[in-house]
Amino acid sequence: MSLSRREYKKRAKEITCPVYHKSSSLSRQAGYYPTLSSTQKECIHQIKANLKAAGMSISSSPENDNLQILRFLRARKFIINETFSMLIEHIKWQETENYSQLSNQTCQHILQCDVEELFYFCPWWFQGVDRQSRPVAWGKCGGLELWRLTQCTPLSSILRFHIWGCAQLER
Predict the structure, then answer these.
(1) Cα–Cα–Cα angle for 31, 69, 92, nearest 5°?
(2) Contacts from 96-104 at CB under 8 Å and sequence distance 24+?
(3) Pairing with 118, which of 4, 11, 96, 156 sits 20 to 30 Å away (CA)?
(4) Backbone angles phi, psi at 125, to 5 degrees
(5) 135-145 residue pLDDT tens
(6) What is the pTM of this model?
């Protein structure tokens, strides 16, 4: 796809993402919004075009799409083919796990046991996000009693509960 210089600059300005906390160093690092080079912005557009051509999408929010794509691009050093393959695998995994519907379920439904039992045998909770928009989770390290927890609910439900927690943070 060949673009004129004017079209290229216009498209490069169209990238929007949520702003990091003012004291976060990420907003000043290369490969993070808003310090993206025009080449990095074009990589985002290329991945979006590839996803559209494949009939796939990441999320319902364009801002979150950009953050997700940037995360995968940084993981693959902005190599479009590798990023696209990794992103497709991620989307397929989300479909397999029914990720989009997971956040609408209750934790009791996912765990198939009382939530109080989970927190008694595995004391942890999400506090929110830090200045770099990363989730903050706390846990009492010595308090995990996995052998007792697996007597209440299967390990697959515990894993699904962890995925559910991550989905709640994305909302």
Answers:
(1) 150
(2) 97/160, 97/163, 99/163, 99/167, 102/160, 102/163, 102/164, 102/167, 103/164, 103/167, 103/168, 103/170, 103/171
(3) 96
(4) -160, 160
(5) 787 777 676 77
(6) 0.70
